[in-house]
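A.,

Following up on our hallway conversation. Structure tokens first:
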């Protein structure tokens, strides 16, 4: 296959006519105006603060907890999938139900887990906004929300992956999966060689957010 070989999976059966979530080009800022969802959220926060029901400090602390806790949920799910074949099977069959087993309740109706293999590499995007499994991976990074990433990863995924340091062999097919309001994705990366006997905590440490989106692959530091 040529370097441009890839598949694009756009799931439009439910459409994108929803209140968008809140991406800069990979090398620049491109946030654009706040979405309707962001404007409503800010207005609600200000109203609750005016009524004395919450404080700005409480909101800040809650956001810090959100950022600290949620990104590790997805890592723990993947670490278990690497060590528990039965769980991985359930994750591939019904991602939302499998995550619920680990206490992760997804905001979307469906979570589809896609598995990387020696011949297939999966990448996640939301081309029209920034649909993203926040309950699993935390807040979406700026690059994921940028128009640069959302447009380019569909048409030149290998070039985008290379900018993240991910260079794939020519025979590997790149599959780009387009999320929507009701359907989110997570990548099950290939478990690296040399991790036999690792604990779940060690495995979770290399199953980073970017590997679960598919822009990078898990890496094991060489001993030295």
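Then the amino acids I'd put at each of the 224 positions:
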């Amino acid at each position: 296959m040529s370097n441009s070989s890839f598949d694009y999976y756009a799931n439009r059966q439910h459409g994108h006519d929803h209140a968008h979530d809140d991406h800069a080009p990979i090398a620049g800022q491109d946030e654009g105006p706040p979405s309707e969802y962001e404007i409503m959220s800010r207005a609600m926060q200000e109203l609750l603060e005016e009524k004395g029901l919450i404080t700005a400090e409480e909101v800040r602390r809650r956001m810090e907890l959100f950022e600290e806790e949620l990104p590790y949920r997805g890592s723990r799910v993947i670490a278990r999938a690497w060590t528990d074949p039965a769980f991985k099977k359930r994750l591939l069959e019904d991602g939302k139900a499998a995550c619920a087993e680990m206490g992760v309740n997804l905001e979307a109706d469906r979570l589809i887990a896609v598995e990387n293999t020696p011949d297939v590499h999966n990448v996640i995007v939301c081309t029209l906004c920034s649909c993203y499994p926040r309950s699993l991976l935390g807040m979406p990074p700026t690059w994921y929300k940028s128009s640069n990433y959302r447009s380019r990863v569909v048409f030149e995924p290998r070039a985008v992956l290379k900018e993240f340091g991910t260079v794939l062999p020519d025979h590997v097919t790149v599959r780009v999966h387009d999320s929507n309001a009701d359907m989110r994705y997570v990548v099950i990366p290939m478990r690296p060689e040399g991790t036999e006997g690792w604990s779940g905590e060690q495995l979770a440490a290399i199953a980073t957010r970017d590997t679960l989106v598919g822009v990078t692959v898990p890496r094991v530091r060489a001993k030295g």
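Residues 12-33 have pLDDT under 50 and may be disordered. Curious whether your intuition agrees with the design.

B.
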